[in-house]
């Protein structure tokens, strides 16, 4: 194919993509079907491959989503993921969404080696352990798991799981002041697919977080976020001395294995947002 013909084909692909993006922005709502490949082919006088390329690009960007055997639809908007010390509820409401929580596990458990090391404790030390499914406007968004040393707040779960773990710690004079996050991506486990309502194995964004009060570690958490509902926003600043992450060892692997995720931000954390260069202020669990 000559260069001029190649450029013409690319131009047609961009034209179809722009048309669909404008349609989503101005006329369609979440869940609405977009025009079929056949109708777009006839409308723009292009090949089906060109139309598919335009649709694929918007699916990759999270603007559209495919439902096997049904068609292509407008996808729910993505939430910016920026790590800061705010609660999931605060972040959801800031985006105009109503937050929801389902407690999946709660109790006291001995600290696994990786959790103990991250919190400067001995393996087997008693920990408050909370696993929650977080949602926004009724749609599951993330699975979060948090570990907090029992001796820091013995009565933390006496009345059930607090709406905000960060808030409950603050009430006990243990205000989180900073944290450090590690963000990775991998395919969702079977359990995560079920909890997050994923139709098939899709990528999830995983975060592992340690939250501190001054120099004292307060909480270790792991979270799994729907890759199709979050985008990472990272503010950039002038170069500063690099902050070397503390070792997190096996827990990151555990999250990837399928363990309930979350606890990277105290369970009250919320939808994360990007992570500033330094460990980050994370979500308030």
UniProtKB/TrEMBL annotation:
<protein>
    <submittedName>
        <fullName>GntR family transcriptional regulator</fullName>
    </submittedName>
</protein>
<dbReference type="InterPro" id="IPR036390">
    <property type="entry name" value="WH_DNA-bd_sf"/>
</dbReference>
<feature type="compositionally biased region" description="Low complexity">
    <location>
        <begin position="248"/>
        <end position="268"/>
    </location>
</feature>
<dbReference type="InterPro" id="IPR011663">
    <property type="entry name" value="UTRA"/>
</dbReference>
<dbReference type="InterPro" id="IPR000524">
    <property type="entry name" value="Tscrpt_reg_HTH_GntR"/>
</dbReference>
<dbReference type="GO" id="GO:0003700">
    <property type="term" value="F:DNA-binding transcription factor activity"/>
</dbReference>
<dbReference type="GO" id="GO:0045892">
    <property type="term" value="P:negative regulation of DNA-templated transcription"/>
</dbReference>
<dbReference type="InterPro" id="IPR050679">
    <property type="entry name" value="Bact_HTH_transcr_reg"/>
</dbReference>
<feature type="domain" description="HTH gntR-type">
    <location>
        <begin position="10"/>
        <end position="77"/>
    </location>
</feature>
<dbReference type="GO" id="GO:0003677">
    <property type="term" value="F:DNA binding"/>
</dbReference>
<keyword id="KW-0805">Transcription regulation</keyword>
<dbReference type="Pfam" id="PF00392">
    <property type="entry name" value="GntR"/>
</dbReference>
<dbReference type="InterPro" id="IPR036388">
    <property type="entry name" value="WH-like_DNA-bd_sf"/>
</dbReference>
<dbReference type="Pfam" id="PF07702">
    <property type="entry name" value="UTRA"/>
</dbReference>
<dbReference type="InterPro" id="IPR028978">
    <property type="entry name" value="Chorismate_lyase_/UTRA_dom_sf"/>
</dbReference>
<keyword id="KW-0238">DNA-binding</keyword>
<keyword id="KW-0804">Transcription</keyword>
<feature type="region of interest" description="Disordered">
    <location>
        <begin position="243"/>
        <end position="285"/>
    </location>
</feature>
């Amino acid at each position: 194919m000559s260069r001029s013909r190649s450029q013409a084909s690319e131009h047609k692909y961009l034209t179809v993509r722009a048309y669909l993006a404008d349609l989503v922005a101005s006329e369609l709502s979440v869940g609405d079907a977009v025009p079929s490949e056949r109708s777009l082919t006839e409308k723009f006088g292009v090949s089906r491959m060109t139309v598919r390329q335009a649709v694929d690009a918007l699916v990759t960007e999270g603007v559209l989503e495919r439902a096997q055997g049904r068609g292509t639809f407008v996808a729910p908007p993505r939430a910016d993921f920026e790590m800061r010390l705010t609660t999931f509820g605060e972040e959801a409401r800031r985006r105009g969404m109503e937050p929801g929580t389902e407690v999946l596990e709660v109790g006291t458990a001995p600290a696994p080696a990786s959790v103990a090391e991250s919190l400067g404790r001995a393996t087997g030390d008693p920990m408050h352990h909370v696993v929650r499914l977080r949602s926004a406007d009724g749609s599951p968004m993330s699975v979060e798991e948090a570990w907090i040393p029992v001796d820091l707040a013995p009565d933390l779960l006496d009345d059930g799981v607090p709406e905000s773990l960060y808030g409950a710690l603050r009430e006990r004079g243990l205000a989180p002041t900073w944290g450090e996050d590690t963000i990775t991506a991998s395919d969702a486990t079977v359990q995560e697919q079920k909890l997050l309502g994923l139709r098939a194995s899709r990528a999830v964004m995983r975060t592992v977080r340690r939250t501190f009060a001054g120099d004292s570690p307060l909480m270790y958490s792991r979270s799994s976020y729907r890759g199709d509902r979050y985008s990472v926003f990272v503010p950039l600043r002038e170069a500063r001395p690099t902050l070397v992450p503390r070792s997190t060892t096996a827990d990151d692997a555990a999250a990837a294995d399928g363990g309930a995720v979350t606890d990277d931000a105290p369970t009250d954390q919320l939808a994360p947002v990007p992570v500033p260069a330094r460990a980050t202020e994370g979500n308030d669990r």
